[in-house]
Amino acid sequence: MSHQSDLIAADILEYLKQHENKELLRFLTCGNVDDGKSTLIGRLLFDSKMIYEDQLASVTKDSGKVGTTGDRPDLALLVDGLQAEREQGITIDVAYRYFSTAKRKFIIADTPGHEQYTRNMATGASTCDLAIILIDARYGVQTQTKRHSFIASLLGIKHLVVAVNKMDLLDFSEERFNQIREDYLDFAKNLNLELSAIHFVPMSALDGDNVVERSTRAAWYTGQTLMEILESVEIAKDKNLENFRLPVQYVNRPNLDFRGFCGTIASGIVKPGDTIMALPSQKTSKVESIVTFDGNLEEAFAGQAVTLTLEDEIDISRGDVIVKLNDLPTVGKKLNADIVWMTENPLVPGKPYDLKFASSSTAGTVSKIHHLVDVNTLEQSLADQVNLNEIALVEVSLDKAVPFDCYSRIPGTGAFIIIDRLSNVTIGAGMIVGAASASDDNTPVTAAEKARRFNQKPAIIAVNAVNAEQVVQGLDRRLFEMGRVAAIASNEHAQLLKDAGLVVLVAGGADGADISLAADQESLDSLIADLQEQGVI
Ligand SMILES: Nc1nc2c(ncn2[C@@H]2O[C@H](COP(=O)(O)OP(=O)(O)OP(=O)(O)O)[C@@H](O)[C@H]2O)c(=O)[nH]1
User: Fold this and answer.
1) Core-most of 39, 221, 237, 253, by most CB within 10 Å?
2) Rounded CA gap, 104 and 233, in Å?
3) Cβ(152)–Cβ(160) under 8 Å?
4) What's 35's DSSP letter?
5) Is the ipTM of this complex over 0.90?
6) Residue 64 near residue 46 (C-beta atoms within 8 A)
7) Nearest one of 306, 313, 269 to 289, comparing CA atoms
8) Which residues form the Tr-type G domain (predicted)?
9) pLDDT tens-digit profile of 135-171?
10) What is the pLDDT of residues 259-317, one digit of tens each?
11) Cβ atoms of 296 and 290 closer than 8 Å
């Protein structure tokens, strides 16, 4: 639903244009049962005039019968459609509500509390920019508050609003508010959160103090109201514009003359002329054009849905990732990740699962549980299995090497889901912490460390032989196994790679080949020995 605007009557096209260009903020609300979550959402909608009159009339009528607010409309009933379904036992993991104000568009992820909280919250939070953590001012920071905050930090939510609610019951005591803020900050310093990005707001969702309208009862509070925060918190700079990653969702080939790779840019910026590499094939080319519905773009960045066309006919399929040549993700078979377990059957090390990454799917196992994290106390403990709603740091071993990033840097290519092979249901979600090397399996190797190593001694293989594809596939595997990333390039791009300061070996073929090789194991071994001798790998 959208706010009322005079422009709707005066110039509907202009209104629609403005609306389309408004920034979208996704947030989620979390709190204990009865902290006032439904009342708060109802109040946000009501005070921003996003309730239709007939809805209000019906809520007012129902309030007398089933509400908890006497003869005032019980705004919690606005959020009741969901509740009714819950009571009928229909499982709804996350409900999304949409609204807009003159400044922004909003999506609220509303997750039911109760026993399955971790799973639900992880699902709702994974795409959110901001989380509202509700605290009942009478009870202060509770175990649940800590749990929600931990999950929010794990999922990389950058902005938190701690809504200290029901302040009307405590006469808007400044002292109580400050105490809660201190308690919360004391706990939050152990989390991966920027403390200065945490907002605290004293409010009464029931009476509307500091939700949309400024409270007259808390004159001591000079900060923003909740709505002011939601409308102004800076989220544009949360986007990673440094590391280009385009997971390919679809290959558009309407006729023989056009081949475009479509997807939503997970991070970074791309321009025509950029040299790119497709993973896992490691073929390189240059961006020819960035095509969108509204015409070609001079550049595109994180969050935009685009179609790239390339200068060369290279083979890229759905599930591949397009990256820039000078900024590659880690490619490997072992990684460390925080995982949230989402099903009754516990996670057991060694059991085969299917794992789905932004770019590709593969079979694999959890090879080691480093430790469980108690979501309430943040304490770590050893365990031989992970149960429903538990969170653990684990090592994952994959059947084939996949490209990946650290979740904290690039969530789009730093997350994966674990799928049950029989039921095809998602049973876990993982946030990648870094690569895990086979030789040093106790110490996580971060993606940055891996990149550093890679940059020191890159091994780029350029090929033009007829059977080179086959050869390089074998070579790739060996290089991956040795913890090195190799790249395949056409000869044309070999020069580009050289210009970029990378080591280039031209394998096979005639023109100017440094090394020629055939597709047999012996040649492969000798090539590897050569590379090792030269210190390339
Ligand atoms: N005094 C006071 N009561 C409030 C306030 N906010 C909510 N309440 C009351 O607290 C009770 C619980 O509110 P809800 O909004 O239903 O709480 P909830 O967190 O959504 O609870 P669940 O939907 O059960 O998860 C209701 O009786 C509300 O009227 C507030 O700011 N002040």
Assistant:
1) 39
2) 11
3) yes
4) S
5) yes
6) no
7) 306
8) 22-242
9) 999 999 988 888 888 888 888 888 999 999 999 999 9
10) 899 988 989 999 999 999 988 888 889 999 998 877 889 999 888 889 999 998 888 88
11) yes
Report whether 163 contacts 40 (CB < 8 A).
yes
**Has this prediction a pTM greater than 0.90?**
no
Phi, psi of 332 (to 5 degrees): -165, 175
The angle formed by the CA atoms of residues 112, 115 and 121, to the nearest 5 degrees, is 45
Residue of the CA atom closest to atom 24 of ligand 1: 33
Pick the atom of ligand 1 nearest to 112's CA. Answer: 25
| Closest C-alpha among 431, 436, 485, 495 to residue 462 | 495
Q: Whose Cα sits closest to atom 30 in ligand 1?
A: 166
Structure tokens at 11: 């110039």
- 3-state class of 333 per DSSP? strand
* Residue 343, SS3 per DSSP: coil
How far is Cα 176 from Cα 333, in angstroms, rounded to an integer? 51
| Ligand 1 site-directed mutation target among 92, 121, 144, 206, most atoms within 8 Å of CB | 206
Q: What is the DSSP letter of 213?
A: B
Q: What is the 3-state secondary structure (H, E, C) of 397-454?
A: EEEEEEEECCCCCCHHHHEEEEECCCCCCEEEEEEEEEEECCCCCCCEECHHHHHHHH
Q: Rounded distance, CA 351 to CA 397, Å?
A: 11
Say whether 70 counts as a known binding-site residue: no
Tokens of 512: 């100017």
The token pair at 105 is 């568009």
What type of residue is 193? L
**pLDDT band for position 256 (50/70/90)?**
confident
